[in-house]
Amino acid sequence: MSVNYPNGKKYVQRQIEPKLLVNNQKNGTFSNRGMTLEEDINETNQYYLEQKIAVIHKKPTPIQIVQVDYPKRSAAVIKEAYFKLASTTDYNGVYKGKYIDFEAKETQNPTSFPLKNFHQHQITHMEQVLSHGGICFVIIRFTKFDEVYLLSAQHLLFYWNRMTGGGRKSITKQEIEENGHYIPLGYQPRIDYIKVIEDQV
């Protein structure tokens, strides 16, 4: 099946590196450098679900089907499709009766996080979640250091508004360290973001 992005480029499935447990130098815990941020969060969410801590899932990526073949009456084969632009954030769910909504992003930039990684419709969605009393945030991984931070949507909106007002187009790593929450990488769960937001529930 041919799957394309909205800009027409073909989707190429990325080869996942073998999973290796390595020592995280900053916190002395074991982390998995072979895993993507999405995989780590998905495993974390599965742990939360199994332990009856929270129910949080990744939203499916919407796909526009373009061409379908029918080799048999009882079977249809998708031959071409495009990823649609997601309209909200990556994850949502519930924890202790509170709505949780967040985005997950990785950057190879060692000193800052580029705001171009977000779209206006995602920012608007976060504003709407906050206006209804939901807990909203972004989880950011600096891949060079294998460090993960949780930054509240309130802080993200401040930096977004700073950019749209003519300010810098990124959030410095120092700003994220000062205003965000460092999440040590562990084994189970891998990225324990619930521990960070417990005091908001």
Write a brief structural summary.
The protein has 201 residues and is of the alpha+beta class.
Question: Can you characterise this structure?
Answer:
- The chain is of the alpha+beta class.
- The chain has one domain (24-65, 83-200): 3-Layer(aba) Sandwich (Trna Endonuclease, Chain: A, domain 1).
- The protein is 24% helix and 35% strand.
- The protein is built from 5 helices and 13 strands.
- The protein has helices at 37-50, 120-131, 153-164, 173-179, 194-197, and strands at residues 2-4, 21-23, 30-32, 55-58, 63-72, 75-83, 91-95, 98-107, 112-114, 135-142, 147-152, 170-172, 181-183.
- A 6-stranded mixed sheet has the order 4-7-8-10-11-13. A 3-stranded mixed sheet has the order 1-6-5, with no helix packed on it. The protein has a two-stranded antiparallel sheet with strand order 2-3.
- β10 (135-142) and β11 form a beta hairpin.
- α2 (120-131) crosses α3.
- The termini are far apart.
